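Ex. 9. Protein: Rrf2 family transcriptional regulator.
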Amino acid sequence: MKISKKTDYALRALFAIAEPSRKGTISIRELSENIDISRRFLENIMLEMNKAGWVKSITGRNGGYELARNANSITLGEVIRHFEGMVAMISCVSVYNYEPCSQEGKCYFRRVFLNIRNLTVQILDKTTIASCFSFQPISKDDIFKEEFIGGLGI
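Predicted structure tokens for Rrf2 family transcriptional regulator:
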């Protein structure tokens, strides 16, 4: 599964707003600069996230954005599903975007993709915005560890 830029930017914005050291609201200008996204594109994403109930806009001199819900109650799964529509890698194992396949009755690899979907959903649905702040950022070395080199293109 690969997420779109829009989902990536939405997650960046949520994490910037939820940053534990942040006090008060963050302006759209500051948010845009902070997470390296064009202001125009970010404004559309923020409108969508406002409608979804994750953020709220505060008007006035010290206005900007803040979380509308606690960071412990917003999961990566709900954000990704909102912007992507599905988590499954192939549509024949998707719950919401299921598309039948002529090979379903005799497909031997479909089970693997169903397992991947189930494990991915379990992780994404139990991982909240707040819980991610306990992780250490990964380095390039983490990505290219020797045990994963054989899986080119992961």
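Check your answer against this statement. The helical segments are 5-18, 28-35, 39-52, 76-84, 110-126, 129-132, 140-143.
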